[in-house]
Write a structure and sequence with these properties.
The protein has 255 residues and is mainly β. The protein is built from no helices and 23 strands. The protein is globular, with a radius of gyration of 18 Å. The protein starts with 8 loop residues before the first strand and ends with a strand.
Length: 255
């Protein structure tokens, strides 16, 4: 069985409120299992070898740094915070990694610097820098995203979407398998149908942003552009889809 991965730039047109977006999507080199974008404009991934990489646009390549991880989030100044295979949390300090308290399965950092995790019990926690501890909040989830103001958005096991309202949670329309927010205030989801949607607060609904399936994970850049990890589609000798490898993702970004 042969697997082909093509590097391509293509143009799509997606209907969006009162406008037509002509989007150029570019496949970036390599594969990733996790992706995150910082408010400083940086873009990071966790590669298939569990190593963290940051994107060097001038050299058009991913630059590897030390350490291993499964999930990554970026502070407003471009500092990576990772979760490793043992669910331990580390923040980069110079050329070293510093252990943070607690354990987690997911992490997100808002443009204001607020750090949120999902604990191994699927409960949301917010970092309290004064006490140096994670503050527990109600609810359970499998995905979390902190938006421009640090407000968390959740996706639970039933693919339901929630966002924080004070100490409670507001049920949002639609269903999703991943959610992410940009420093400019944009919020995207990968729907249960694996397509990409963008939130419109005025219309209070999700709009399909890109008519293409097989999206797996998403990041949103500082200027509101999505970067997705697509599942690798493996075809058999008859040209039919044989399997979908969603942990071996191809990275594509909107230009």
């Amino acid at each position: 069985m042969k697997r082909f991965i093509l590097i391509a730039v293509f143009v799509v047109a997606a209907l969006y409120p009162a406008e037509i977006i002509f989007a150029q999507w570019q496949q970036l080199p390599g594969k990733a299992q996790s992706v995150s974008a910082g408010a400083d404009g940086s873009l990071w991934i966790i590669g298939m070898n569990n190593s963290p990489y940051f994107w060097d646009e001038d050299e058009y390549e991913w630059v590897q740094i030390s350490g291993t991880a499964q999930k990554i989030a970026i502070t407003p100044d471009g500092t990576p915070v990772v979760i490793n295979q043992r669910n331990e949390i580390y923040v980069r300090r110079g050329d070293n990694w510093e252990r943070m308290p607690g354990s987690a399965t997911e992490i997100s950092i808002g443009a204001n610097g607020d750090k949120w995790i999902l604990g191994t019990n699927q409960t949301p926690y917010k970092w309290d820098p004064e006490s140096g501890r994670w503050q527990e909040f109600s609810g359970t989830a499998v995905r979390i995203a902190a938006d421009q103001g640090g407000r968390p958005w959740l996706v639970n096991r039933r693919n339901e979407i929630f966002r924080q309202r004070g100490r409670s949670w507001e049920r949002m329309p639609g269903s999703a398998q991943d959610v992410e927010a940009g420093a400019d205030g944009t919020v995207f989801i990968i729907g249960s149908n694996t397509r990409l949607y963008k939130w419109d607060e005025e219309e209070y609904q999700w709009y399909e942003y890109f008519d293409r399936e097989h999206n797996y994970r998403i990041a949103v850049t500082a200027n509101g552009r999505p970067v997705v990890i697509e599942c690798e589609i493996v075809y058999n000798e008859y040209g039919l889809q044989d399997e979908e490898k969603c942990s071996n993702g191809i990275v594509k970004g909107m230009r």
